[in-house]
Amino acid sequence: MKYVYIVFIVLVFFGCTPKEPVPQTKVKVVEILDLNETVQDLIDIPQEISYYTKNIENKNIYKSQRNYEKAYFSMWNITKPAQTLENIKWPFKYFNADKNYAENLQPVEDVFFSDMLEESNFEEYSTVNKKALTI
Q1: Dihedral angle at the C-alpha atoms of 124, 125, 127, 133, nearest 10 degrees?
Q2: Whole-number Å distance between alpha carbons of 11 and 5
Q3: How many angstroms from the chain centroid is the CA of residue 72?
Q4: Other beta carbons less than 10 A from residue 125's beta carbon
Q5: What are the residues whose beta carbons fall under 8 Å from the beta carbon of 46, sequence distance 6 or more?
Q6: Half-sphere exposure of residue 5: CA atoms within 13 angstroms, side-chain side
Q7: pLDDT of the chain along its 135 residues, tens only?
Q8: Per-residue CA distances from 134 to 26, 83, 111, 131 (Å)
Q9: Is the pTM of this model over 0.85?
Q10: Can you give the three-state secondary structure of the chain, one letter per residue?
Q11: How far, in Å, CA of 90 to CA of 85, rounded?
């Protein structure tokens, strides 16, 4: 059986080799463009933005862009939290150990919710209002 594999490998290697030498291809020399030549696209394609925007019917695009930027950067203009403390505490009112299950599919213990309420530190809510990025 060992000899069959050896013969097979020899046939594959020698069967795939080219029978005649591969001719050398000549490399085409590319001429360097003259830097003083004008690019034809600059002549054929209009280079003014007004040419492409003349057919825009809705001129409120600038207004919507301003509104988008105002909303996008609004977080940097907030001086106090938008939600009240009562609105922030809503999960502790609606979730309890009777209705909820943990990752192990077992009911959540009451201690979990009391620990979460204690660790939430609601007494200090809205006392440190600094701008920050969370990455």
Answers
A1: 120
A2: 10
A3: 17
A4: 14
A5: 52
A6: 2
A7: 778 778 777 777 766 666 677 677 776 666 666 666 777 888 888 888 888 887 777 666 778 888 899 999 888 888 888 888 888 888 888 887 777 888 888 888 888 888 888 888 888 888 887 887 788
A8: 58, 19, 30, 10
A9: no
A10: CHHHHHHHHHHHHHHCCCCCCCCCCCCCCCCCCCCCCCCHHHHHCCCCHHHHHCCCCCCCHHHHHHHHHHHHCHHHHCCCCCCCHHHHCHHHHHCCCCCCECCCCCECCHHHHHHHHHHCCHHHCCCCCCCCCCC
A11: 9
CA gap 56, 104 in Å, rounded? 57
Domain segments of the chain: what residues?
81-125
Per-residue tokens: 59: 């001129």
Residue 21 is encoded by which pair of tokens?
A: 């030498």
